[in-house]
Write a sequence for this structure.
C-alpha cells in the first residue's frame, strides 16, 4: 500500500493531535473521516472542513472502509478499543498511532491483532500546552521530528507507508527507533523534562514572581502546564526508564550542587562548558 | 537629575548588555560614550553608530564629563574598577549597573563610594545565549522586566532616574526589590533554572538525540549554552540563596520521583494540576 489519495483514512480520537493530522491530510487532498467521543468535536471538524465525515458512534461502515487508521487515544483506551472492535477492520488495513510510549502498547496490540491487519507504531514529536481539536491548527509539524517505531512483526511496506505519512504531514525529519530505544529516549528527552518543569513550579510560590522573571524561567516551565490525566498515564507506562533517567539527572544536579557548595569554580565551569558544547547540537538549523 | 538628552551617558563594559543599552539610548537621541577592554568592540560600536565616542583607555576626560555611568562588567571587575578609579567621576554623577547579583556588590560599592556620587543598582532581565556587542542588537527589552534594587542609602531622585532609564530603554515592566529579595528571587527564577539546564545536558549523552527531540527539551535547555566565566561567578556570589533553592527543587523533584515509584497516580496528578495552575500566571499577556 502506498499513501495515495484513493485511500480512506480514519482518525480515531479527534483531539489536539488527531485534529492536526486530519487538518494536514485534508489540506493535501486526502479523504479523512473521524470517530471520537464528543459530538461537538465532530461538529467543529465538519464545520471547519477538517474531516469529510465523522461520528461519535462505532460506525461499522466507516471503520470497515478505512485503509489506514490513525489512533490518537490515551494508551489504555487504545488497547481496549482494539480488543473490542478489531473485528470491524477491513482486511489488509494498516493501523498507526501517535502514542507517547510504546513498550506498554505495541507488543500487546501486535500480539492480539488479527493476522490480516498490521499495526506500525509512530510518535510525532509535536504538541501544545492545550488540548482539543479546536486548538489543533496551532500544532506545527514543519519544525518537528517524527519517529517510526517498528518491531520484527512489521513489514517493509507498512514501515514505508508510515514514513510516507510522516512526510506527507510535513514533519521536518523522519527517524526510526526500536521500541526500547524509543521509550528510553522519550524518558530522557520528554518525560524527564516534564518532571523537572512540574517539580520546579511546585517547589516555590513567591507571590508576584511573574513581574521579575526572565525568559529562561518561562521557557523552562512552559510544559508545566500539563494534561495530568494523559501524562500520569504516560509516566506510569514508562516507569522504569523514567525513574532511571530521573536518577541520572539527580546525580548530575547533586554534582553541580556539591561543586557550588565547595566553591569548586573550575568544576562548575567544566560542567558549564560541557553543557554548552552538547547543547549546540540541538540548535535548529 | 532627570533623564534628559543633555546628559552624558557613559557605558563601562561594551558587551552584550552594555551594547544593547548603548544601542537603545542612541536610537532615542541620547549622547552615549563607552569604555571597554577591546579595541575591536569600540570600532564596531562606532562603525554601527551605537556610541558617539569610545576608548579602551581610562580616559579621565570621558569619565569626568559623564552624568550617568552604566556598569556592565563582571561583579568583581566592577568592584575593582570603582575602588581604583572613582576619583575620576564628576561630582554629582549617578552610577547604575546590570549585574545579576546584588548582595555581593551593592553594599560594598555604596560603602566605599565618594559621598558626592550615588550608586543605584538595577537588573535588566534580558539576555541571549551569546555574548559581545556584536550580538547586542538581538537583545529584546520590550518583553522583559527591569528590576531596580535600592537600599536606604539611595535618594528618591536616583531611584526615579533609574526607573526612567528602564522605561527609556523600552522595558515592558519596571519593578522594585530590596537587595535580599532580589537575590532570593534571582536564585530561584534565574540561577536555579540555569543549574537545571546544565545538569540535564551533563547527565546524558545518547548520540543522535537531536533527531528525536521535541521542543520541550529544546526550550528547557536553551540556557545550557552558558558563559561559564560569568555564571560561575554569579553562582558563587549568591551561593547561600542558590543552594537553598536547589534544595527546595530537589525536595519537590524527589516527591514526584517517589509518587511515580509508588504508582501514586492521584498524587502525581495533584502536582501536575498545581504546576498547571501556577504556570498560567507566567504566560505573556
Amino acid at each position: 500500500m502506498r499513501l495515495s489519495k484513493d485511500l480512506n483514512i480514519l482518525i480515531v480520537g479527534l483531539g489536539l493531535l488527531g485534529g492536526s493530522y486530519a487538518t494536514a491530510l485534508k489540506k493535501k487532498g486526502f479523504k479523512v473521516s473521524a470517530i471520537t467521543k464528543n459530538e461537538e468535536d465532530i461538529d467543529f471538524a465538519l464545520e471547519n472542513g477538517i474531516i469529510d465525515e465523522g461520528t461519535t458512534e462505532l460506525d461499522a461502515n466507516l471503520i470497515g472502509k478505512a485503509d489506514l487508521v490513525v489512533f490518537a487515544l490515551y494508551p489504555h483506551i487504545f488497547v481496549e478499543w482494539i480488543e473490542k472492535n478489531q473485528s470491524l477492520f477491513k482486511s489488509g488495513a494498516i493501523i498507526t498511532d501517535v502514542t507517547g510510549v510504546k513498550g506498554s502498547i505495541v507488543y500487546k496490540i501486535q500480539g492480539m491483532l488479527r493476522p490480516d491487519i498490521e499495526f506500525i507504531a509512530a510518535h510525532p514529536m509535536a504538541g501544545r500546552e492545550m488540548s482539543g481539536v479546536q486548538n489543533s491548527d496551532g500544532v506545527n509539524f514543519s519544525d518537528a521530528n517524527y519517529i517510526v517505531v517498528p518491531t520484527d512483526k512489521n513489514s517493509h511496506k507498512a514501515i514505508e507507508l508510515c514514513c510516507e505519512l510522516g512526510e506527507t504531514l510535513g514533519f521536518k525529519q523522519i527517524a526510526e527507533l526500536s521500541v526500547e530505544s524509543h521509550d528510553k529516549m522519550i524518558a530522557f528527552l520528554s518525560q524527564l523534562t516534564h518532571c523537572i518543569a512540574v517539580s520546579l513550579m511546585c517547589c516555590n510560590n513567591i507571590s508576584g514572581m511573574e513581574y521579575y522573571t526572565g525568559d529562561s524561567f518561562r521557557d523552562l516551565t512552559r510544559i508545566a502546564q500539563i494534561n495530568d490525566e494523559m501524562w500520569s498515564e504516560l509516566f506510569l507506562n514508562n516507569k522504569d526508564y523514567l525513574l532511571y533517567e530521573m536518577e541520572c539527572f539527580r546525580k548530575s544536579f547533586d554534582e553541580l550542587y556539591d561543586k557550588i557548595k565547595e566553591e569548586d569554580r573550575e568544576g562548575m565551569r567544566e560542567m558549564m562548558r560541557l553543557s554548552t558544547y552538547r547543547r549546540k547540537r540541538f540548535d535548529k538549523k
Q: What stands out?
A: Chain A touches chain B through 90 residues (CB under 8 Å). Residues 216 and 222 of chain A are 10 Å apart (CA to CA). Chain A has a mean pLDDT of 94. The two ends of chain A are 33 Å apart (CA to CA).
